[in-house]
TrEMBL record:
This is ABC transporter substrate-binding protein. SUPFAM superfamilies: Helical backbone' metal receptor. Pfam families: Peripla_BP_2. Belongs to the bacterial solute-binding protein 8 family. It comes from Streptomyces evansiae. CDD domains: TroA_a. InterPro entries: ABC_Transporter_SBP, ABC_transptr_periplasmic_BD. PANTHER family: IRON(III) DICITRATE-BINDING PROTEIN (PTHR30535:SF7), VITAMIN B12-BINDING PROTEIN (PTHR30535). Residues 55-334 form the Fe/B12 periplasmic-binding domain.
Length: 334
C-alpha cells in the first residue's frame, strides 16, 4: 500500500503542511470536521491520503472537469492544459475555469507543480505522466501526492496497454474515490446516480440493428483511434453502436487503414481537437481514396464529438445522449 502526504523533503514540506495542517473542511452534511486519513484503491493499489488536499494541480480538460463537477475548484492551485482543446467559452464549467489558474498551456511538470505549491497532482499515464518526462514517484520524492486517472491505469496482464475496467466504470470509480478523498461523498454519489440514469435512458432506446462505428482521432498515414479500454468504446456502445475495434485490447492506439476498410463502419466519429480542425479531418476522410467504398464515407456519415466528450470526463453521459440520437437516425435510414 502506498501512503501519501506523510513525509516530504524539508523545503516543500513546510509549504505543503501549512496548506493542510489543522485545516477544517465542510462535509456534505454541512458540519465542519477535522479531515481524517482516507484510503482508496487507485489503479489496483491502496493509497492513503493523510489529509484532504488543498492545492491540487490537474492535467488536461477531462481530469480538470472531474474536479469541477464535484465543486472542488476551491481545492485547486491550477490546471495544465494545451490550448488545442477548443475554446473554453460556453463550456459547462466556465465559472470554475475562471476561478482556477491556468498554469501551463502544455502539461503538468514537477517544476510547475512545485511553483504552484501543489500538495496533489491529478493526472494519468499519457495524461501528464509518462516514464520519460514525469512519473508519480518523482513527485512523491518532492513531497507531492498523486492520484491517477483510472481510464489510464496500466493493465497488469499485458504490462503495457492501458485500461483495467469499462470506461464508464472508470469514471464512476474516480468520482467515488474523489468524493472520499475530499469529503464530498454525497455529492459524488448523486452525480454518479444522475449519470447512470442518463446513460440507461439512452441504452433503452438503442436500435435493434446497431450501426458500426470507427473513432477517428488523427493521423493520415495511420489512424489513431480507440480500442475497448478507452472512453469511446463505451460511449459508442451505450449510444447504440458497435465499436469496430472492440476486440483491440488497448485504450488509445494506432491501427492500419486496411483494418478500417475491411471492417466497413457505418459511421465515423471524429475527435475534435488539435491543430487540424474537425472540418479538415472530415474533408480528409471523405476524400481519402482507400476509404471510398466504406459505408460511412459513401453515405457521408461523419459525426463530430469534442475531445472532452471522448476522454474520461463528466461530459461522457451527454456525449452518449447526443451520439445516441444520431445513431438512431442512421439506423432508421437503413
Amino acid at each position: 500500500m502506498r501512503k501519501l502526504l506523510t513525509t516530504a523533503s524539508l523545503g516543500l514540506a513546510a509549504a505543503v503542511t501549512l496548506t493542510g495542517c489543522g485545516a477544517k473542511v465542510e462535509h456534505d452534511d454541512g458540519k465542519a470536521a477535522k479531515a481524517e486519513a482516507v484510503t482508496v484503491t487507485n489503479c489496483g493499489e491502496k493509497v492513503t491520503y493523510d489529509k484532504r488536499p488543498e492545492r491540487v494541480v490537474t492535467n488536461d480538460i477531462g481530469i480538470t472537469e472531474l474536479m469541477f463537477a464535484l465543486g472542488l475548484e476551491d481545492r485547486m492551485a491550477g490546471y495544465a492544459m494545451p490550448d488545442d482543446k477548443g475554446s473554453l467559452t460556453g463550456v459547462p464549467y466556465k465559472d470554475a475555469y475562471d476561478k482556477v489558474k491556468w498554469i501551463s498551456k502544455d502539461r503538468v511538470t514537477k517544476e510547475n507543480a512545485l511553483a504552484a505549491h501543489a500538495d496533489l497532482v491529478f493526472a494519468g499515464w499519457n495524461y501528464g505522466f509518462n516514464e520519460n518526462a514525469l512519473t508519480p514517484d518523482e513527485l512523491h520524492k518532492a513531497g507531492i501526492g498523486t492520484y491517477l486517472l483510472t481510464e489510464s491505469c496500466r493493465n497488469a496482464r499485458t504490462g503495457t496497454s492501458r485500461g483495467i475496467m469499462p470506461p464508464l466504470d472508470a469514471l464512476y470509480t474516480d468520482l467515488d474515490n474523489l468524493g472520499k478523498i475530499f469529503g464530498v461523498e454525497a455529492r459524488a454519489t448523486k452525480l454518479i446516480g444522475e449519470y447512470k440514469a442518463k446513460v440507461a435512458a439512452v441504452r433503452a432506446k438503442a436500435p435493434a440493428k446497431r450501426p458500426s462505428v470507427f473513432l477517428y482521432d488523427s493521423g493520415q498515414d495511420q489512424p489513431f483511434t480507440s480500442g475497448r479500454y478507452a472512453a469511446p468504446e463505451q460511449i459508442i456502445s451505450e449510444a447504440g453502436g458497435v465499436n469496430i475495434l472492440h476486440d483491440l485490447k488497448d485504450s488509445w492506439t494506432t491501427v492500419g487503414w486496411e483494418t478500417v476498410v475491411k471492417r466497413n463502419p457505418d459511421v465515423i466519429v471524429v475527435n475534435d481537437y488539435g491543430a487540424t480542425s474537425a472540418r479538415k479531418k472530415r474533408d480528409f476522410l471523405l476524400s481519402y481514396p482507400p476509404l471510398r467504398n466504406v459505408s460511412a464515407i459513401k453515405n457521408k456519415r461523419v459525426y463530430v464529438l469534442d475531445y472532452a466528450d471522448l476522454v474520461e470526463s463528466p461530459r461522457n453521459p451527454s456525449a452518449i445522449e447526443r451520439l445516441g440520437g444520431y445513431l438512431r437516425e442512421v439506423a432508421d435510414a437503413g
